[in-house]
Amino acid sequence: MKKSTKKLCAIAALGTLFSSSLCLAAGPNANAASEGKWLSGDFHQHTLYTDGSTTFDFVMEKSNEFGLDWWANSEHGGGRNRDGNGVFWDTYIPNPILGNYAVSGGHQIMWRWQSLRDFVYPQILDTRSLYPERRAFSGFEWNVPGHEHCSTAIVAKDMAEDASAISAFEYQFDKSDKDTSRNSENTPYGTLTKTNVTHADAVTACQWMQDQYEDGGIDNAWIIFAHIERNGIAATGGYDVNDFRDFNNAGPDVAFGFEGAPGHQVNTFRGFGNALTCDENGVCISSEEDEPYDFGGTYGGVGYYTAEVGGLWDAMLGEGRRWFNFANSDYHKHYTAGGDDFYPGEYQKTWVYAVDKDGDGAYSYNEIADGMRSGNTYFAHGDLITHLEFEAQDNNRKASMGGELVADGAIKNLKIKITFKSPETNNCVADGTYISACAEPKVHHIDLIAGDITGLIDPEKEPEAYTDPTNPTTRVIATFAANSWETDKNGNNVIVYHLKDVDKSMYFRLRGTNLAPNTPDETDAVGNPLPDALVTRNQGIDGAQEAWNDLWFYSNPIFVYVK
Q: C-alpha angle 451/452/454, rounded to 5°?
């Protein structure tokens, strides 16, 4: 049986600050990174199987072309009427469709539990054969009961032939899957029960995945929530901070993060479908009367939950939660063909540090999934950086992203080391139509952001705190411009910063950009990102050009505990 952070949490029982932090820290990557390799990926993309506009094979080819080391086919649950080449299922002879009869667009649909198992997975196996150096995961975009969407994937026990686990998850828990034909079916994952209506059902789904992982029914999995601000608060179909806390409590080893930077980065609102309008004074409000301004568009291509210093993500981190941040393409249709998207890997990448645990010189699906869970990851726009090491050190104790450093008392001299590298060029191509000019990817400055860790919040004892999406202790404690770093013999930029007399538990995270503070309509006086809608309104710059002008990266946190 796998070591479960959930069981350790139960033992800690939300006691003191330190016992609470131990409960959350007992996962992978508790120390500095072991020998491994940085691998780039994208786990949210669409094909003709659902609402994408290009074939399955085309999207796999583009993922490879843009240099991704790994990716997941992750598209909507529910039911669809066509296959990955756009052929209607009911034109097959014989008709292969199983389950309850339903129609969409005049054609019979196939429920996703079947297409995932019987059609998509064989194509994933073909993809693995075609690109043996890459890793193509089996996943889907979960329509979360009571909420919006979520990227999921499972590494099955028998990867040569078995996609039944992801099929069982989709059938039971996807709110758009109305099929009832498999109710009471006995599977290796238990008896199937339809549980797909309420928030409580979504929590049960996370619990189910956690149980499968703990009990060895599956080798690995992730549940990472998608474009989290798009539908606003939970009352309008989105998410509140307490929802993420519930999911993480139920599945700490599988439900461990969200997409801080949504896909659809060529969209007018850099990923969101709801408008944010700004007046001549720069005051911005949502077009939806019942939603606050933070749900309209993005801030430097990043959602408000992540971009706001001291906001929702920082509230999660302030508990010491291993809750990590990722980015994807959410590719449906390329902007040059009338869509809102870059190809997978063309603009946004999630970088994962994978450890070669079995020493075979390759990186397995398990090792990549473990790397995501470890939190030793970061994401970047437009290849602003293609390498990042972020470490905290106290004497001989060291921790990297996602890890923890534990000190017996106050730390006299906490050493923060940042090592990063930018490429000479990225995938921007000036064509005179969509993009007039391309700047080299170059970091202007990096912010070191810190907040206090006060421990897990008990929803029964502190209900108001449990629903509070803020962390007022979070602040930018240092900003590093080009004169703050040196270049080593490998061409990496290196920053060393010392924090004296650390006498309380804190987390540290990074964000960096190619833009200077006070860049008109892009950043404020101290360098915080402004609403992307300002650039559209005031300068008329939109689409791909806006995205290539405005590049950011975000690290995941390091946790430092002082007893």
A: 140
Tokens of 40: 């780039």
Tell me which H or E stretch contains 389. Answer: strand 387-394
Spatial distance between the Cα atoms of 67 and 349, rounded to a whole number of angstroms: 10
Q: How big, in percent rounded to 5, are the helix, strand and coil portions of the chain?
A: 25, 30, 50
Run of H or E residues at 412: strand 411-421
Beta bridge partners of 390: 418
Q: Which helix (H) or strand (E) holds 349?
A: strand 348-355
Concatenated DSSP letters of 418-459: EEEE--S--S----SSS-S--------EEEEEEEE---PPPT
Cα separation, 246 vs 236, in Å, equals 18
Please give the C-alpha separations between residue 317 and each of 8, 312, 323, 480, 507, in angstroms, as whole numbers: 19, 9, 7, 23, 7
Instruction: Tell whether the torsion through CA atoms of 210, 366, 346 and 524 is positive or negative.
Output: positive
pLDDT at 148: 95
CATH number of the CATH domain containing 511: 3.20.20.140
Structural domain count, the chain: 1
Confidence of residue 393 (pLDDT cuts 50, 70, 90): very high
Question: DSSP letter string over 210-237?
Answer: HHHHHHTSSSEEEEEE-STTTT-SGGGT
φ/ψ of residue 476, rounded to 5: -80, 115
| pLDDT for the residue 295 | 67
| Closest C-alpha among 536, 511, 506, 508 to residue 521 | 536
Q: State how far the alpha carbon of 408 is from the alpha carbons of 16, 22, 386, 411, 454, in Å.
A: 15, 14, 35, 8, 17
Which helix (H) or strand (E) element contains residue 463? helix 463-466
Alpha helices, DSSP H, located in 142-267: 164-173, 199-215, 241-250
State how far the alpha carbon of 443 is from the alpha carbons of 420, 446, 524, in Å: 10, 7, 17
The least confident of 166-170, 232-236, 391-395 is: 232-236
What are the C-alpha distances in Å from 437 to residues 21, 544, 545, 546?
Answer: 48, 11, 8, 11
Residue written as token pair 């063909």: 337
pTM over cut 0.85: yes
pLDDT digits (tens, 9 = 90+) for 35-92: 899 999 999 999 999 999 999 999 999 999 999 999 999 999 999 999 999 999 999 9
Helix (H) or strand (E) holding 64: helix 56-65
Q: Report the relative pairing of strands 135-143 and 70-73 from DSSP bridges.
A: parallel
* CA distances (Å), origin 228, targets 234, 292, 369: 10, 15, 21
Average pLDDT taken over every residue of the chain: 91
Q: Which of 257, 180, 165, 175 is nearest to 215 (CA)?
A: 165
**Is residue 14's pLDDT more than 90?**
no
Task: For residue 497, give its domain range.
Answer: 5-562
Say what the pLDDT of residue 286 is: 56
Phi, psi (deg, nearest 5) at residue 11 = -70, -45
Amino acid found at 92: Y
